[in-house]
Structures are given as C-alpha cells and as structure tokens.
Amino acid sequence: MYINYLIEFVVSMVATISFAIVFSAPRSELSYCGLSGAIGWIGYSIINTALGAPTLGNVVGTFALTILSRSLAAKRKNPVTVYLIAGIFPLVPGAGIYYTSYYLIMNDMANFSQYGLSTIKTAGAIVMGIILGMAFPQVWFNKAFAPSDHK
Predict the structure, then answer these.
(1) Running DSSP on this structure, what letter comes out for residue 137?
(2) Half-sphere exposure of 88 (CA within 13 A, CB side)
(3) What b/e readout covers 11-35, taking b as 16+ CB neighbours within 10 angstroms?
C-alpha cells in the first residue's frame, strides 16, 4: 500500500513539474512546484482511499497544498501563485470536465448530469480548500520563515 503512495507521489510531482514548465514557472522553483502538487495529491489520495470520500479528499489535499504554497512563497520570496497554480494541476477534474462536455454534446442528459455534478463538487471542494488555506494571515507565514537575527 505504501509503495502505491510513493508511486503516486513521484508521478504527481513529475506531472506538476511538467505543467509548471509549460506555464513558465521560474526554473529555480520547479522542484518546489512539483513538491506542492505531490503533497496536494497525496493528501487527496490518503483521504479518498481511507474514507472513500473524494470530495473531502479534494478539500484536504487543496488545503495542504495551499498551506505549503504559502509557506514556500514566504520562504522563497515568490508569489504564492507560482506554487499554488502549478500544484493544483493533479487535483483539477480534467476528465470530468471533458466527459461532462461530451455527454452534453451527445445529448445524454443522464450521464451529463452525473459527470457534471461530480465535476462541480470537485471544483467546489478545490475552492473550499483554497479558501480555508488562505484564511490564515500572511504575516504568520512571513514570521515563521523570517531569517533569525542571532548574532
């Protein structure tokens, strides 16, 4: 079981780095972008596997990703979006969006409704995770990662 999480971690990290390259993230930040995507995915995967709750998994994964992104932004002196936008890539319901559109075009309203509702729930869960992660004041992150003045 743990080997599956390791494989998922590596694959989601590589996918996130690839996405970050396409969207021109700074080269020096690519590994951190990959880490944020991998952490978000593993948060999702653990909750989904343990509880069978993909929507809750998306909230938890996105929350973890948002907190990590804000921490990296404070530590690395970059905008949070560098890590957050790249890191969200593994959690975005791309297949759900595709199938929702497909079934709408094919006039299959039963499948359109099923995939559409699932996709909306996933998107809403991602939004909730970001909102929860952004609820903490940025000054907390800045203080936590400020250089110490020990002389």
Answers:
(1) -
(2) 23
(3) ebbebbbbbbeeeebeeebbebbbb
Q: Two tokens at 132?
A: 């929860």
Structure tokens at 70: 């804000």
What digits encode the pLDDT tens for the residues 23-45? 999 999 999 999 999 999 999 99
* CA dist., res. 63 & res. 79, Å (int): 17
Rounded Cα–Cα distance for residues 48 and 55 (Å): 8
Token pair, residue 27, equals: 């080269």
CA dihedral 143, 86, 99, 56 (to 10 degrees): -20
